[in-house]
Every structure is written in C-alpha cells, then in structure tokens.
Specification:
- The chain has 449 residues and is an alpha/beta fold.
- Helices cover 32% and strands 22% of the residues.
- It folds into 2 domains: 222 residues, DHBP synthase (Alpha-Beta Complex), CATH 3.90.870; 137 residues, Rossmann fold, CATH 3.40.50.10990.
- It has a 7-stranded mixed beta sheet with strand order 6-7-5-8-4-3-9, with helices on both faces.
- Helix 14 links the parallel strand 15 and strand 16.
- Helix 2 crosses helix 4 and helix 11 crosses helix 12.
- 44% of the residues are buried.
Length: 449
C-alpha cells in the first residue's frame, strides 16, 4: 500500500459506501449498498463504531446544499497524526464543532454577530491551548488545542484567542434542525457516547476544487473509511428516537362532521402538529389518510394561487363520508418547507415570470424541502401502519414509506383548477411529477403562475 493510499493506524479495511437521493425530495432515499448485507441503519451504526474507536468517517451532505464531504472524528480521540492526515489529504479548513453551552462556558465568542454566510455556518473566534503550544499551527499544537477545548475539566483560563483551531457552534437539534456537517459530526459523536465535540475537515481535490461524490467514493476506498450522508443520519434519528409527544385530545365538531383532535409537540423545535381522527382507525389496515402540509394563505385565507385549501376541505369531507380515517396537519411545511416569508418572496418571483420550482431555486432552495419523519411518528403513535393515502404527490408516498409506513393505495385528491392556479398545477404535474389530469375545459391559463 503506497503512502498515498495508506489508511490511518488501526483503520479497519471494510469499505462502506451509502449513496442517497437528494435529501430535499421529502425524505425519498434511494440506497445503494456496496457492502454486502449492510443496511442504511447498520451503516450508520458502523460509522458510530468507527467514531467511538477514534477513527475517521466521511460525511457527505446533499447535492442541493454544499455537496461536500468532510472528514469527521471525535475531538476527545484526536491525535497529531489525525490532524496531519486531515491537513495532508483533506486539505480543507480544520474546524471543531461544539455545543453552544460549551462555547459559552469557555467564553469563546462568535466570530460575528451578523452572520451572512450562505449556509449560516456559525464560526466562533479561533482558539489555541494557552501555555501548551508554540505557534499553534503544527499538527501537534492543533491536536493539543482540540484536546484542551474538549476536556470537561478545562475552563476559559485554558484557552487563548485567536488561534489556529476554528470552533463551530452546532444547533441543539442536530441534523433534525440543520442538515449540515457541523450538526452531523456532533450527532455521530453523541451516538458514540463521547464528549459532544468533533473535528471536521473538508475534502478537497489535488487541484484545489471541492471533491464531489465520485472522488469521495474513491477517497473512501483508498483510505478504508465509511461514507455516510446527512440524509442517512436524519432518517436514522427519525427511526430510532422518539421525537414527538401527544399533548392533548379533544372533541372537535366541524362543518364536515365530528373528529377527535389530537395535538402533538415536536421535541426538536416545540412545533405543534394536529391529527383529526374520525371513527376508530387504530390498528386497522388500509385506513384513509391525508397528510396535509400547512398553508396559511390557502387553508385560512382562501388563496387561489394554490389548491391547498380545497384539498384540505375535500380530505375532511371524504373521511367523514368513509366514516373512519385521519387528516394529519403538519406545521412547518409552509411553501413546501421554505416558510411563509420565503413563500411570499417566491410569489413575487412568480409574478415576474418564474414558475413555482424556479422561484424556490432562485431563492436558494430546493423545489421541495419537506421531510415526513415527524408525521410518520405521529401516524405510528395513532397505531396506523397501513394506509390509503390521499395525495397526488408520489414523493410523499416514498417519504412516508421511507419511515416504515405502508401505503397500500394512492387515492387521488384532485380538486377543480382555476385561472389563478392552473399554471402552478401544470408545473407540479410536469416538474414535480404530481399525478394531475387537469382536464377542466373551462380553465384557461391566467397571469398568476
């Protein structure tokens, strides 16, 4: 084995590579298993085992985001040899993801109070290990700085600023709050049962460009490292952690009929989600279900730009007609996940000629940012595993099935179009693959797209 391909000391020779589809496609994950018998979950478990053993893994984010791979290891396991490997073969910036609480305790301030970076990367002032290093840049000095900052017995008096190690502040909810390398590294370290601090370094090509997926796979093979994606980790956490709790249950009379309304709270961001339940569907097969994404403008104010309000009403009506079923109302999905303010900005772009996909992309978002992990956990709490899903969106089916639910039938939920939303619906059919007929002969394309 040449010096170029030599693995780190103790690095196992197994090669595990996971390739997932775009994370932004609502949790739709296509897994290519190159290690015989491996599954997405056992692969995450294998990566956690490597982290626990003081070895490195490669974490790849989404192609629609940074589209980069980072070397990741636990801070408490760092060695000068590991830092030298990152500097020599990773070639990127060596950073130290930490919790906000730890950064506050060590009195390491943010690099700026006005973070305008494209991906909200939360840099703090660079650090060194006070009194224990020389220039601070050598592999030995950076490893020492990381070890001191990660040591629970260290305090502010042990840190000098500025230095040659760059702390990053991770979001408390990990990859379920922000799908970045910073959060992914801390999630892996936590899963390994180690001190929540990591070391990461971007992998760059020899020509200085960022290494992309094919090159990262070659790098993994050459250096005997597992690759996991942020998408893998998100799905793993959704499948293995309890992320919602039932907070209320009330009778809810509506103009459609009687429902029992269950309130659920997300343990990630404290958002509230609603489940309207008719009859007694618990434990039954092929229950009629609608998973409805929040749309304030359509559901509440009757906007004609979309078909959301009529779809919600039709779903509630059909379930009452059926006598049994569930409408799950998922908050946080406004504008296919971009939020209300950004949705309004997207509307402005649509008025200038963009379609709904182009508008999202012009704002820096993927066409669909929704994830259905929280919704899947709520449906499971209601003892629903097999359902007839009212939707025109095949990605939603894949998203729910990715979390272990069974969609036995897709039930179309097409409502009449109007001049104000016909172009929007055509875009959903042609670019987002929604199953829509749009056969109304009385509808002509209007100005609003």
């Amino acid at each position: 084995m040449s010096a170029r391909t030599r693995a780190l000391p103790g690095q196992p020779a197994a090669v595990l590579v996971i390739c997932c589809a775009n994370l932004q496609k609502a949790g739709s994950l296509k897994v290519e298993e190159r290690a015989s018998g491996e599954t997405p979950f056992s692969t995450i478990s294998s990566a956690v085992e490597r982290i626990a053993a003081g070895q490195m893994v490669i974490v790849v984010d989404d192609e629609g985001r940074e589209n980069e791979g980072d070397l990741v290891m636990a801070a408490e396991k760092v060695t000068p040899e590991a830092i030298n490997f990152m500097a020599s073969y990773g070639r990127g910036l060596i950073c130290m993801p930490m919790t906000a609480e730890r950064l506050q305790f060590l009195r390491i301030p943010p690099m700026t109070n006005d973070n305008t970076s494209a991906y909200d990367t939360a840099f703090h002032v660079s650090i060194g290990a006070k009194g224990l290093i020389t220039t601070g840049i050598s592999a030995h000095d950076r490893a020492m700085t990381i070890a001191v900052a990660a040591n629970p017995d260290s305090g502010p008096q042990d840190i000098s600023m500025p230095g040659h190690v760059f702390p990053l502040r991770a979001k408390a909810g990990g990859v379920l709050e922000r799908a970045g390398h910073t959060e992914a590294s801390l999630d892996l370290v936590r899963l390994a049962g180690l001190t929540p601090a990591a070391v990461i370094c971007e992998i760059m090509s020899e020509d200085g460009a960022m290494a992309r997926r094919p090159e990262l796979e070659r790098f993994a093979r050459e250096h005997d490292m597992p690759i996991v994606t942020v998408a893998d980790l998100i799905r793993y956490r959704h499948a293995t952690e309890r992320l919602v709790k039932r907070i209320s249950q009330v009778q809810m009379p509506t103009r459609f009929g009687e429902f029992v309304l269950y309130g659920y709270s997300s343990m990630i961001d404290n958002s509230t989600h609603l489940a309207f339940v008719a009859g007694n569907p618990a434990g039954k097969k092929d229950v009629l279900v609608r998973v409805h994404s929040e749309c304030l403008t359509g559901d509440i104010f009757g906007s004609l730009r979309c078909d959301c309000g009529p779809q919600l009403a039709e779903a509630l009506r059909r379930i009452q007609e059926e006598g049994e079923g569930v409408v799950l109302y998922v908050l946080g999905h406004e504008g296919r996940g971009i939020g209300l303010a950004n949705k309004l900005a997207a509307y402005e772009l649509q008025e200038r000629g963009c379609d709904t996909v182009e508008a999202n992309e012009s704002l820096g978002f993927a066409p669909d940012l929704r994830d259905y992990g929280i919704g899947a956990q709520i449906l499971a709490d209601l003892d629903l595993t097999s359902m007839r899903l009212m939707t025109n969106n095949p990605t939603k089916i894949i998203g729910l099935e990715g979390y272990g639910l069974i969609v036995s039938e897709q039930v179309p939920l097409e409502v009449p179009a109007c001049p104000q939303n016909i172009a929007y619906l055509k875009t959903k059919r042609e670019r987002l693959e929604h199953r829509l007929r749009l056969e109304d002969p009385d509808v002509s394309e209007g100005e609003t797209r």
